[in-house]
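Incident log entry.

Two folding requests arrived from the same account within the same minute. Monitoring flagged them as a possible duplicate submission, but the sequences differ. Recording both here for audit purposes.

Request one:
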Amino acid sequence: VSVMVNNIKKAWPQYGLSSADICYEIVVEGGITRIMAVFADYQSVPKIGSVRSVRHYFLDCSAPLNTIFVHWGGSTPGYDAVKSRGINNIDGMSMSKVSFLRDNQLKKEKGQEFSNFTNAELIQKGIEKKKYKTQQEIIQKNETIITRYVKEIRA
């Protein structure tokens, strides 16, 4: 999975970045940056965030990795790119009660855009709700097919 993470000073401390396999930092509007954290094993994602919106240029980095893109909202070009490229995504705007948690203390202290987080369990719920296939599921299915085939050959 790829998870968009806020990177302005007010959003600090960030959570989960040190557990990512890859982090991309790209300048967005106004000279600020956002980080896209990539996890090879989505089941190992710790609490991560605060989660922010999709921008189309981050999809250029995530698409070759074939990740599920986790974000909260997005720019118009970001949403257009998700749709036109057929990117599997989990968006807090429509899945907030399924795949995200809100830190109400941070919401009170810093604002709503700094209070949205996710983790492995919540991402799994989003994957199940959207019926996305994961590489792990495909590998397990292939292993089952190969095991059956080997048993048939040996029989």
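Request two (distinct sequence, not a duplicate):
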Amino acid sequence: FQQNDLKFFTGIKTRTPHYSHYITSIKIFKDYPLFGIGIKNFRNQCNEEKYAYGNYSCSSHPHNIYIQILSETGIFGFLLLLLPLYYVTSRLLIHFYNLITNGKILTEFQTCILISLFLTLFPFLPTLNFFNNMSKIYIISYICFIKINIQSGFL
């Protein structure tokens, strides 16, 4: 594994702890691509020498939802995360397109919920542990609001 393999992370300072967590997590994902290492097992696997990258390679989680999902649940878990993100992103794009062309189609509350979920799942920011209680509360709350609006015919 070479540092240059990750052109995506070139904007991150290579001596930061988050960068080390990202590299460690991606190394783990490469060894367990389909199903990952198991939920909340990053903290156990990152101590292994073959995954170490610098002094800060180990933590309770990799500090990025997408990298965490890839390393802990593999591609199958990652696909389960991408489906809701695709739905929210497509609904936001449709809404903003219709807002520009035809006028408002969603209420401000509905738009705020969609934007909140989108920002919570934004891929380029360090994040909380996806499998932690507080993160789940935020995400499940947003999803519940969206589901209620779908059943009501608003989304």
